[in-house]
Amino acid sequence: xxxxxxxxxxxxxxxxxxxxxGAESDPASTLDxxxxxxxxxxxxxxxxxxxxxxxxxxxxAVANVDTAIEVAADEGLRHPMTVALPDGDDxxxxxxxxxxxAPSDERTVHVDRFGGEVVSTYGYDDYPPLAKAVAQGxxxxxxxxxxxxxxWLAALMxxxxxxSCVTGPLMWWRRRRRGSGIDAPRGRMPVSGSPWLxxxxxxxxxxLPFFGLTLLVVLALxxxxxxxxxxxxxxxxxx
Length: 239
Description:
By secondary structure, the chain is an alpha+beta fold. It has eight helices and six strands.
């Protein structure tokens, strides 16, 4: 689901070049490709393009990691920072500020390896609205935002999940009919009469392909096998 949502949320408005018209060269790769398998790359910045350094007027590379950290600090990035080294002869130093507890502070500064100046920046303020919403949602989901409030909300969610494991079977036991088989209770909100429920299932089926495939398999088994075999029909109480 993450890859699907990321594609939708960051498809528009993530180009560095649409925000920095002074950039000189074509982008080469994405930030995710610069730091593969790293949790330091903000979710909404992973697909942003990494620019290139411009060697015009320079005899060689003069910037280093210390330069990148100093320049990024002057730009307001939080410490500690993660720095991706230049990729190729004209790559840049990409400094990513630490924003574990505040997604709104997420920001990346790309520093030219020749002149040591800022080539381009990209951060939370540049995210499309959907990417901002997801970034904040991830912070809440992972318990990184709101301090102890997130901790107690996460603890409450754990208690709710445990309670549902107990109350689910109890609900079935109370609602079941005294027949043979598993005797599944009738749903009180059938999909056929609930367009919002049907629409939600379709959206989830697209965002979660395996979930959608599972729904289709169960539907096919119900319609083509269970309802055509009297014994199974009685067992599942689908008559």
